[in-house]
Amino acid sequence: MDPFATLGLERTFSLDLRAAEKTHRELSRALHPDRHARGGASERRQALERAVAVNEAWRVVRDPIRRAEALFTLAGVPVGDTHEPAPSPALLMDMMEQREALAEARSRRDAAAVRDLAAQVGAREEATELALGAAFEDARGDRARLEPLVAKLGELRYYRRFLEEASAITDDLEPSS
Amino acid sequence: MTLLEIFDPKAAPKPIGIDLGTTNSLVAYVDDERPCAIADCDAEVLLPSVVAYGPRGAVDVGRHAKAGASQRARETIVSVKRFMGRGADDPETARLGPYSFVPPKPGEANVVRFDVGDRVVTPVEVSAEILRALKRLAEDELRAVGGAVITVPAYFDDAQRQATRDAGRLAGLEVLRLLNEPTAAALAYGLDKKQNGTFAVYDLGGGTFDVTILLLDDGVFQVKSTGGDSALGGDDMDHALANLIFERMGWGERERGDANLVRLVLDRARAIKHALTTGLEVEAEIVPGRSVVVRRAELDRLIEPLLERTGVACRRALKDAGLKAEGLDGVILVGGSTRVPAVRAYVKRLFGREPLADIDPDQVVALGAALQANLLAGEGRDDILLLDVIPLSLGIEVGGGVVDKILPRNTTTPTGARATYTTQEDRQTGFEIHVVQGERELAGDCRSLARFTLKGIPPMPAGMAKLEITFRVDADGLLTVHAREETTGLEQEVSVKPSYGLDDAAVEQMLMDALDHGEDDLKARLLAENRVEAGRIVQATRQAVAVDADLLAPGDRGRIDEAIAALEAASRGDEPGRIHHLIEELDLASKEFATRRMNRAIARAIEGRKVTDVEGGLSSHAAPGAE
What we know:
The complex is a heterodimer of chains A (177) and B (627).
Chain A: H1 3-6, H2 17-31, H3 41-62, H4 64-74, H5 89-107, H6 111-139, H7 143-146, H8 150-173
Chain B: H1 3-6, E1 14-20, E2 24-31, E3 34-37, E4 47-48, E5 50-53, E6 59-61, H2 63-67, E7 76-78, H3 91-95, E8 114-115, E9 120-121, H4 123-142, E10 145-152, H5 158-170, E11 175-180, H6 181-193, E12 197-204, E13 209-217, E14 220-229, H7 234-248, H8 253-256, H9 259-275, E15 281-287, E16 290-295, H10 296-320, E17 330-334, H11 341-351, H12 364-376, E18 385-387, E19 394-398, E20 402-407, E21 415-422, E22 431-437, E23 447-454, E24 466-473, E25 479-485, E26 490-495, H13 504-514, H14 518-547, H15 556-572, H16 576-589, H17 591-607
Parallel strand pairs in B: 1-10, 10-11, 12-17, 14-18
Antiparallel strand pairs in B: 1-2, 2-3, 2-4, 5-6, 5-7, 8-9, 12-13, 13-14, 15-16, 19-20, 19-22, 21-24, 22-23, 24-25, 25-26
């Protein structure tokens, strides 16, 4: 399945998400089962299948990690646990230090420090997304040029896991914020 | 109502919306674009969700049943909604009321069974009694009732939704859709106020709490996130107050074991709670000659922990929607429990703004459901669309009891996803699939929805078999799971019922039992249903042909006209099977045409404008004469 084609979007990482969301909404207007509730069985079935495909595509496209995964897969570059290169030692060291800092802030119950750490990693996530967007443009779907970019996807995964953890800690430390 | 209306034999069936609540239920319909609730002969709109089972099959629903509850506590089921979709072995089950339960016999579905004297009933049957009473009420008012939209808490899981749908079927309703309560409320508010923006709906009912964040944009109600607790509501306030009363009365274990006394105290607790909405202090007689005094501040203290739980859900919903409270354009209060002053004050503090409550919080959900029923029947405005989400993540248990999330919470429905697994051992011929719902990492901490085994995989080395599991969630939020072994094409599909639901055969049997003359009644009902369906499809097909005549391939019109004529002839007869067959024939005759219309609709949506002549409309999708 090509989620970009399903939504009538250009196959690119740097998408105008607002425009894409609008397209998703217009497609939902056309296809949602509520719109076909009075139609015949095959009309309802077709509408449901396509509405499912449209929602599935939107779920992929709106999320940077899933969007990158889809672009790699469409270009024939395998992604996923067993296919991706091990993270670089530099990134591993870096994330380990950040995690330690996070654990310390947690045990000190220092919510401000947790937020600072999250902001730092958030900024790196954003930078990586921008870099990945530019690199996808340059590669123009060329497999050989795309393969080295898979490492950046791994980076995004690390950042996300870190941010989710930080967010859970924040919830825990400041239940009323 | 005029006599003319009463005797109109051709009264068109009216779609209805039903709020099947924990404490009260009600039914509404749309009259000339305005939704309104239907009152009974005493001018009461709210039907207490109380069902009393008497001797010789007598069943009483509503106020009368409620009034007698403290004399016949074990035979009178109150707040049945809290038992929907729960297992007989669920620890919550026993905690919820003074009932006698019957454990399921071996081979029977793991659902709650109440012993109500001379028979045993399940929550689905009890709920069906409430729905039947509402249906009768609607029939008295509207003459003929069409399809129904039944609301459910947004936070209801799959088993609870299935149980609600089964109850509707059992009550003889055509269930058009299960609609999430907060979304229904938003629809009623949105259409009333015609305002765009992002809103939070805080819905605290008798037994369930939901919070939903949604974006209203030019007629599209898009749910961004939802959260809640399907076991938190006004009932819990009553229980807390009842505990206080038991303490004040100096009562101990012996009194707490008296079912009728427990029911009486719970009733008194509720009355005290209601009185404290306006009063600051209330004195209530518990048993003749003995009263207790409760101050509002005491109630506030008792419910503080409950409110904190709603706060946690609200903060998470905001976060899931990527918003802060300041980013909201309004907060809507829904549910009778939001009348409690401490609840209003809490919501105001939580969201930093005065919440809206100008539509009756007891009625707003049913009014929204009626609007949705009207839309689905094609009678409302056609620019309205509700886009809802799944409230809890859906996943599969993988090695070590860990959950592999296949669909995360807050995914827009209808939706689907696939995941591929492989065998762990050499020559493994069966693959057990355990479907769970919830946010926890371990399957044991999530709700188990279904277990089934894909059998007959040919013996292969470990890791060679490829099992593709497909999840599909429809617009009712109901899940279907499909498993397929790719190398052999072995397939299995389950609608997710086994763990805590009744299977189709059991519901069918209950349906037969509920009808006075079994098969004859069933046939009459099938005939009526098929005629309605036939009429609807003929109308829809004619309309489609009129609108998109240019998409008809040569020969299409002849085939479609013929199929319509045959179906209309069959509809005048009395064979439901024949009507059903001819509905399928018409469907077949117009299938290609329907595909072309769908393609045109998609092209237009992507273009984002009305295109009169869509490129490649007919020619690229079907070569004329090539059929």
